[in-house]
Amino acid sequence: MPNKYVDFVSDEHFLKCVKWVCDAYLDPSLKFNKTWLQRNGVDPFKMVFDMVVRNRDFDSLIEQEKNRQYDKKSGGRIGDFHQKLLGGVDGWIDLGVGDETKVDLKKEDDTIFMELKNKYNTVNSDSLSAVRQKLERITNNFPNSTAYWAYVIEKNGTSGESEWNYLGDNNLKLRKIWGSKLYELITGKSDALEKTWIALPIAIKDILKDRKNISLSDMKELQNWFKDGFEQ
After folding, report:
1. Predicted confidence (pLDDT) per residue in 144-202, tens digit
2. CA separation for the pair 68, 58 (Å, rounded)
3. Which one of 84, 111, 170, 190 is most buried, counting C-beta atoms within 10 A?
4. What is each CA distance from 135 to 39, 102, 143, 197, in whole angstroms?
5. Any residues with CB less than 8 A from the CB of 210 and at least 6 apart, and which?
6. Average pLDDT of the chain?
């Protein structure tokens, strides 16, 4: 019997990864009363600028801050989602937190190691230099390996793979990969990222049964957005 969601991990694993993100939206620790918001670092100076420059009232700013806290919690788990999901592909391992290599994914045969981020701008230049040094150490320790800096969302809406030339340093064992090419490398399927995206609303509804379907017009807009975000 074929899988319901995607064809590169089990339905059970896919649902587990989707639930990990859904739970962030439903986290009971996000209380969102004024005391909780104050203790979580709401900037009263920024509130003044927002109220005057953007003609906002106090209650609307509190609502905006609630949404920001939701986005912070859920957004942080999107990167986890990709790592957990791809770590369930046959032949791959999600290294989680605390592995001696300090990266996110690897092939079971130690031929590929990967530092995975959700967006291209998740790391600044100092952090990126540290990532490169970490990957270089891995390729020194595993001479038959290739190490990747990987991310899902690229700023110019593309997908690709290339050597990772950084500040004039050209190490052929270090590469970068992004967008749909990341999913293709790990799953062997060129449409794996798109299949994942298509399966998401189905899986979310299976987990949260009271949610309504995405409208046809909104789905069309989302499809165009996805296509523009991962051109090759």
Report:
1. 999 999 999 998 888 999 999 877 777 889 999 999 999 999 999 999 999 999 999 99
2. 15
3. 84
4. 38, 9, 12, 29
5. none
6. 88
Backbone φ and ψ of 153, nearest 5° = -100, 120
Q: What is the average per-residue pLDDT within 41-56?
A: 85
Q: Which of 126, 99, 131, 100 is nearest to 115 (CA)?
A: 131
- Between the alpha carbon of residue 31 and those of residues 26, 35, 38, 69, the distances in Å are 11, 9, 12, 10
Distance between first and last Cα of the chain: 32
The answer to whether residues 193 and 6 touch, using CB atoms and an 8 Å cutoff, is no
CA distance 194 to 180: 8
Return the amino acid letter for 90: D
Kindly calculate the radius of gyration of the chain based on its CA atoms and give it in whole angstroms.
20
- pLDDT digits 0-9 by tens, 208-229: 988 888 899 999 999 988 988 8
Q: 6-10, 21-25, 61-65: which has the highest mean pLDDT?
A: 6-10
* Helical spans, DSSP H, in the chain: 11-25, 34-39, 44-53, 58-86, 125-141, 180-187, 192-207, 216-229
Task: Write down the pLDDT at residue 37.
Answer: 67
Sheet strands side by side (includes 112-119): 92-94, 105-107, 112-119, 146-153, 174-178, 160-163
